[in-house]
Amino acid sequence: MRIDRIRITSLASLHGPQPIVDFAGPILGQAGLVAITGATGSGKSTLLDGLSLAIFGCTPRLGRDTDHLLSRDATEGGAEVTFTLDDGTQWIASWHAHRSRKQLDGAVQTPTHQIARASDGGIAASGAKDVKTWVEQHVRLTFDQFRGVMLLAQFDFARFLVADDKDRSLLLEKLTGTDLYAKLSAAAFEQSKLAQERVQQHQLVLAGLQPLSADERTAVEVAIAEDLSAVTAADAAWTTAQGVLAWWLERRRLQDEQTQRQGAAVAAARRWDEAQPDRQRLAAAL
Length: 286
Fold this sequence. Notes:
- By secondary structure, the chain is of the alpha+beta class.
- Among the domains are: 2-140, 3-Layer(aba) Sandwich (Rossmann fold); 178-231, no CATH class.
- The chain is 52% helix and 15% strand.
- The chain has eight helices and seven strands, in the order βββαββββααααααα.
- It has helices at 44-56, 128-138, 143-149, 157-161, 165-176, 179-207, 214-274, 276-285, and strands at residues 2-11, 14-17, 21-22, 76-84, 90-98, 112-117, 123-126.
- Strands 1, 2, 3, 4, 5, 6 and 7 form a seven-stranded antiparallel β-sheet that branches.
- The protein is elongated and about 145 Å long.
- The chain starts with a strand and ends with a helix.
């Protein structure tokens, strides 16, 4: 995940709408490393609180007890974070809270929390529970993992250093994207295991096969030679039969043709005889 922009309005010491922090812009987008500096109370931690609020709905300093995050002189406020996932899709996470009756002495109401597509504003998740599920599925970090390695609060770096090897390894895999290679490695191991099992099965089959003795092999070779001779003879007989069949078919055709011509000759002779009177009248007329 890459953080592109952070927008904060009336959180803690940051009163009113704040300038957008554009990490993808022409200035910060070219920086390899960004340092957030300033005097005590200038809003450095609040900026990070806003980042955590927009995505997870809580902060490392206050957890989900966010009633005191609104600026004292504000009736409403919130944070909005634009980020890009590893698949290239861009999303906007937003968290917004307001006081009842929009009065400064009003109690802070249940915040609204949602994830929307940056391309068209379509809502992907809304409400604390749905947003939490969506973030863990797509960002692939829980809040504790996020605060442990991506958003280290003051004096909280030791949590990462003293974490056991398994938890630290899991966090580093997710941060660097190498969890994909861990999955590929596990899949390759399973494929190798299955292949080895198949090899062992084939070896067991081969172990049960006994080679033929010299006499048995000679007998098999003689039988094969006899079979090959029989096949050759059968092929020759088939060729001869094909020739005989062709001769018979041609003879049958010629017989049919002879019968047709004999019939035609008989018919011609009959018509000749029938025409005899006509020939006699013609001869007398001449």
